Amino acid sequence: MQKQKKSPVPARSRARRYTEKMSESDSTYFLKLVIFVLLGTLWLKFAQPITVVGIPFGGIPLGLLVGLLLVRLFEKLQGDRKIWYAILLVVTIISNFVPAGIVI
Question: What does the domain layout of the chain look like in residue ranges?
Answer without folding.
Answer: 24-103
